[in-house]
Specification:
By secondary structure, the protein is α/β, with parallel strands linked by helices. It contains six helices and six strands; from the N terminus they run αβαβββαβαβαα. It binds flavin mononucleotide. This is NADH:flavin oxidoreductase/NADH oxidase N-terminal domain-containing protein.
């Protein structure tokens, strides 16, 4: 329906195949998602991108992926845009972008670091997130009260700054 309405290139899909959020865990998601990504490739090769969450994140906790991997999706969807999210640090993001060719997405650290791209670019320490504030309503905390690191607005290289 979306593809018909706005065109394939403006549509994408996010696949969270390893998570157990809302009790959705599979014992082995690989066969089903192999089929799904193959069908997407056949029917909608011009989809803007596929976005995957990594098996290192389950229910918001970083854990050992124990051999689980999205590489089978990378193989099927090869040469097209794949965004990967889940527990990335700056170093890990650089390593995966370089070795796997993924576009890296950040979730929680973006909430506590609205200037995240600049901080990553300049290797400035990140403000830790506070999960208890994520869903705060109003202007008190969480995503509505975003500390911006002023030094990151400068174009000089700095290693650390205190959020204001
Ligand atoms: C406040 C909040 C809301 C989120 N909402 C969604 C959502 O609606 N759909 C979804 O697929 N993921 C959602 N996520 C998961 C993130 O998109 C991301 O996959 C997850 O936080 C792992 O990436 P990270 O380790 O960089 O945070 C949410 C995460 C947070 C913190």
């Amino acid at each position: 329906m979306l593809v018909k309405a706005i065109g394939t290139s403006k549509v994408s899909i996010r696949l969270s195949l390893w998570d157990n959020f809302n009790e959705m865990q599979h014992d082995d998601p690989v066969p089903q998602y192999t089929y799904l990504v193959n069908r997407i490739s056949e029917l909608y090769p011009g989809l803007a991108y596929i976005h995957v969450t990594e098996p290192r994140i389950v229910n918001f906790e970083v854990q050992d992926p124990k051999g689980k991997s999205n590489d089978f999706i990378r193989e099927i969807w090869s040469l097209r845009s794949l965004i990967s999210a889940g527990g990335y640090t700056r170093d890990l993001a650089i390593e995966w972008a370089d070795t796997k060719g993924d576009i890296i997405a950040f979730g929680r650290t973006f909430i506590s670091n609205p200037d995240l791209p600049r901080r990553l670019e300049q290797n400035i320490a990140l403000t830790p997130y506070d999960r208890s504030t994520f869903y705060d309503v109003g202007w008190r905390q969480g995503i509505y009260r975003l500390p911006i690191c002023m030094i990151s607005l400068l174009t000089v290289d700095v290693e650390f700054c205190t959020p204001v």
